[in-house]
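Quick one - first record:
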Amino acid sequence: MEKSEHTFLAMWCNEGLEYVVDITAHEQKQVWKSLKGEEVQALPNLNAMILRARYNSQRHYEIYMISAAAGITEHDLRSMFENDPQYAADLIRERGTKLYSDRANKKKEVIV
């Protein structure tokens, strides 16, 4: 049986990766917990994440959803950010879906 791709939610700022979760795996686990009658844990509220980003604008948050091939885990994404954060951010910007971005713009306007 071949695994399908997984969807991840990632949030980072100019200080590094702050949050990453495998939404697909989380939802599957929660379905099983619900069927067993156990307490279900909700995913973090996206609106709360965006609110955090807006109130900390000096940190230039970015929030993306990205689909990854079977076998890619949260640990893999965390390792990618630890080893080469610029590559990780650029890759997710290129292939992911932007949910929020307050990315710093290095271009400064000069009035002459």
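second record:
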Amino acid sequence: MGEAYKYNINPFQDYLYYGMQQGVDIADEKNVEDVNMGFLHILEYILYNKKDAVYLDYKITRKDQYYKVVALNFISALWLSGIIPSDTTTVINDNKLIINNMLYKYDKRNKKLKYSIIKK
């Protein structure tokens, strides 16, 4: 079962949702650069280290009326989930991030962000 969309929680999700509301096919080749520029604009305002924007790597596909956004690295997976780590180098090297008793890891093989609750 899915969740209802909630505005103003994840700026990347908000940006994509707004574009789709305006009739933009976010997976169309002619819109790829605009979507990427939008994401970079968001990152410009929220990154601790602006040079970390080089980690933005993802692809968007469409099948019928459904879109799929796949992050191609751990940092992009976190960003696209609305999580902005302050130390990207450590996150990349350790392939893990702990926030609020949640452990996040990135499965490089299937390109999925996985998380688990850390029990105290």
